[in-house]
C-alpha cells in the first residue's frame, strides 16, 4: 500500500469519489485519513457524504437524508461544485461485489470509532447484498470539465482470452497527458491502436476536439464492448454525422496488426496515432513495430505523430520496443512526466510516454 498524504475533507471526498467510480483496488483508498476524520465530531456526516459521493444511494430515510443534505449544504463553501455529480455516474455504478466490499470496509471503519451506529450504511449494504452480480460493471472517470467518461468493462482483468476488456493505467496516464496537451489532437484525425475499453480515445474526444477519431482493436468482444462504450458516451458511430458540429466523427475499426495492409492504414489518413499498454509481450511488440514501420513507409510525406504509453512492469519492458524502433529507423523520445494527477491510477507505478517520429526527418531522443 502506498503511503497516504493526509488530506483535508474536500480532497478526501474527491479521492473516495474518483477511486470508487473507477473501481480502484480498495487498499489504495486513503483509509488512514478517513479513520482520523471519523474520530472528529463530524465523522458521521463525512461518512454520509462519502455514501453520497460514491453514489451508493441506500434508501436513506427522511432524517438521514436531512442530515446528509445538512452536511452537503454546510460543505458548499468548502467543496463548491465538487459535490455535484455527473448524471452518467449516477446511472452507472461499479460492480455489486465491489460495492459490497467497499461498504463492508466503510462499516468496519465506522464501527472502530465510539459513535452512534449509522443506519444508512447498513441499508446501503442490504441493498447491495440483494443486487445481482454480473460479469460486466461500469467504471467512470471524471474529467476536469465536470464531464466524465463512463465505460462498461469486464469485472475480470483477463477474460475471453484478452486484456482489452478493462482500462489499464497507461491508458489513464496517456489520457491525462492528452488533456494537458489538447492542441496535439484538436482538428486532427486520430487513430488509436489497441483501444481496449476506449478510455483514452473517449477522453480525447470529450476534451481535445479532434476532427475524427478512429478507435481500433482486433478482438471481437473488445470491439463489441468498445462500440457500446462509444455510444454510451454520446458519440454516434460510423457513417452517422454528429449532430453537434464540434463533435468528432467517431469510427470503431477492426484492425489486426498482423493482418493490416499499408493501403488500409493509409486510408485512415491519420495525423496522430496513439496506443496505450500494448507492449505487454514480445510478439505483440513486434507486430506493433511492423504497423509503425508500414505507417512510416506509406505516409512518408505526412507521417503521423505517434504517442505510445506503457507501464514499466519489469526491467525489460520497453527494451525490445526501443531496439526494434532503432532497427526500423524510427526516432523516439521519452516525454517528461506530467504533473497533473487527474485519474486514480497507482502513484507508484512507472508509466512512460514515447513520442515517435516516423518520417525520420527529425533526430530526437536517445
Ligand atoms: C492491455 S490491453 C490495452 C487496452 C487499452 N489501450 C488500455 O490501455 O486500457 C491491449 C490491447 O491491445 C489489443 N491488441 C493486442 N494485440 C493486437 C493486435 N495484433 N492487433 C490489434 N490489437 C491488438 C488487445 O486486443 C487489447 O485490447
TrEMBL record:
SUPFAM superfamilies: S-adenosyl-L-methionine-dependent methyltransferases. InterPro entries: FAM86_N, Methyltransf_16, SAM-dependent_MTases_sf. GO terms for molecular function: protein methyltransferase activity. Signal peptide: none annotated. Pfam families: FAM86 (PF14904), Methyltransf_16 (PF10294). Keywords: Methyltransferase, S-adenosyl-L-methionine, Transferase. Residues 11-54, 82-128 form the FAM86 N-terminal domain. Transmembrane segments: none annotated. The keyword Manganese does not apply. GO terms for cellular component: protein-containing complex. One of its GO terms (biological process) is methylation. It comes from the Eukaryota. Belongs to the class I-like SAM-binding methyltransferase superfamily. EEF2KMT family. This is Protein-lysine N-methyltransferase EEF2KMT isoform X1.
Amino acid at each position: 500500500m502506498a503511503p497516504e498524504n493526509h488530506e483535508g475533507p474536500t480532497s478526501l471526498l474527491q479521492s473516495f469519489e474518483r477511486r470508487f467510480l473507477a473501481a480502484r483496488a480498495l487498499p489504495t483508498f486513503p483509509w488512514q485519513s478517513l479513520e482520523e476524520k471519523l474520530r472528529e465530531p463530524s465523522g458521521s456526516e463525512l461518512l454520509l457524504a462519502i455514501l453520497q459521493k460514491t453514489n451508493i444511494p441506500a434508501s436513506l430515510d427522511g432524517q438521514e437524508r436531512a442530515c446528509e443534505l445538512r452536511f452537503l449544504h454546510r460543505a458548499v463553501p468548502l467543496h463548491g461544485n465538487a459535490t455535484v455529480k455527473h448524471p452518467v455516474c449516477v446511472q452507472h455504478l461499479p460492480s455489486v461485489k465491489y460495492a459490497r466490499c467497499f461498504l463492508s470496509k466503510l462499516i468496519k471503519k465506522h464501527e472502530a470509532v465510539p459513535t452512534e451506529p449509522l443506519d444508512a450504511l447498513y441499508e446501503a449494504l442490504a441493498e447491495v447484498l440483494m443486487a445481482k452480480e454480473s460479469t460486466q460493471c461500469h467504471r467512470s472517470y471524471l474529467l476536469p470539465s465536470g464531464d466524465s467518461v463512463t465505460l462498461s468493462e469486464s469485472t475480470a482483468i483477463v477474460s475471453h482470452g484478452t486484456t482489452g476488456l478493462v482500462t489499464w493505467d497507461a491508458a489513464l496516464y496517456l489520457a491525462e497527458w492528452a488533456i494537458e496537451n489538447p492542441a496535439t489532437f484538436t482538428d486532427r484525425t486520430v487513430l488509436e491502436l489497441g483501444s481496449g475499453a476506449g478510455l483514452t480515445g473517449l477522453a480525447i474526444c470529450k476534451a481535445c476536439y479532434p476532427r475524427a477519431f478512429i478507435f481500433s482493436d482486433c478482438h471481437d468482444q473488445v470491439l463489441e464492448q468498445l462500440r457500446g462504450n462509444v455510444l454510451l458516451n454520446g458519440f454516434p458511430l460510423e457513417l452517422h454525422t454528429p449532430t453537434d458540429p464540434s463533435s468528432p466523427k467517431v469510427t470503431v475499426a477492426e484492425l489486426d496488426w498482423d493482418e493490416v495492409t499499408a493501403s488500409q492504414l493509409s486510408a485512415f489518413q491519420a495525423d496522430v496515432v496513439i496506443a496505450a499498454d500494448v507492449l505487454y509481450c514480445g510478439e505483440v511488440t513486434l507486430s506493433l513495430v511492423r504497423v509503425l514501420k508500414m505507417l512510416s513507409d506509406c505516409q512518408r510525406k505526412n507521417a503521423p505523430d505517434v504517442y505510445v504509453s506503457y507501464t514499466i512492469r519489469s526491467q525489460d519492458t520497453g527494451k525490445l520496443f526501443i531496439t526494434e524502433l532503432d532497427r526500423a529507423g524510427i526516432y523516439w523520445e521519452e516525454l517528461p512526466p506530467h504533473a497533473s494527477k487527474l485519474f486514480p491510477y497507482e502513484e507508484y507505478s512507472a508509466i512512460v510516454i514515447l513520442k515517435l517520429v516516423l518520417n525520420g526527418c527529425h533526430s530526437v531522443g536517445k
